[in-house]
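Exercise 7b. Backbone tokens:
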């Protein structure tokens, strides 16, 4: 791909308004995105530093499925308060922890493979290269994940002991993901 065409696309993508669910940069991953975007060979198209989610169980992805999203550590009290808000929904609601993910457009395969190897070594184990014709993209994805039903027909399915455990585990997974993000930022030149 010609450098001019790549830089034109990079400029166009980076000048667009933020369409994320939080409507602004995810502060824990912004330094990594800024570093990648400062390099001539890369630009980011989407990213998330990890999140804790309460959402309606649904086969197809639709709007308004996400009931609550946290991009930061939470407490047991915060989770219990949120669950109480949604017990009137007569559907299955699931608790979900999603690990960090970042999508990066790349100019050429050589530098792309270097970042991919660094990311995998740091712990972004579910990372891969995606190509669409002349376009090259990296999906850097970590492996931490939790997902299970937590409310069914207005009834919370687990006790406080379990809720406390999943809050603790999710917060640790967030910290682990943030550590991987910082390490990758340091590795990229």
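Sequence design result:
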């Amino acid at each position: 791909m010609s450098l001019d065409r790549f830089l034109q696309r990079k400029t166009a993508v980076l000048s667009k308004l933020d369409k994320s669910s939080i409507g602004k940069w995810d502060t824990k991953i912004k330094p990594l995105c800024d570093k990648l975007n400062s390099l001539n060979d890369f630009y980011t198209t989407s990213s998330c530093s990890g999140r804790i989610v309460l959402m309606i169980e649904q086969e197809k992805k639709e709007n308004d499925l996400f009931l609550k999203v946290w991009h930061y550590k939470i407490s047991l009290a915060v989770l219990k308060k949120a669950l109480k808000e949604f017990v009137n929904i007569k559907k299955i609601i699931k608790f979900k922890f999603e690990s960090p993910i970042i999508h990066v457009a790349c100019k050429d395969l050589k530098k792309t493979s270097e970042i991919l190897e660094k990311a995998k070594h740091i712990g972004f184990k579910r990372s891969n290269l995606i190509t669409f014709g002349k376009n090259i993209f990296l999906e850097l994805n970590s492996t931490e994940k939790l997902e299970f039903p937590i409310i069914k027909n207005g009834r919370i399915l687990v006790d406080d002991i379990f809720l406390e455990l999943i809050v603790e585990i999710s917060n640790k997974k967030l910290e682990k993901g943030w550590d991987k993000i910082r390490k990758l930022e340091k590795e990229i030149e």
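Instructor comment: The chain has one domain: 3-187. The domain at 3-187 is CATH 3.30.1960.10 (SSo0622-like fold).
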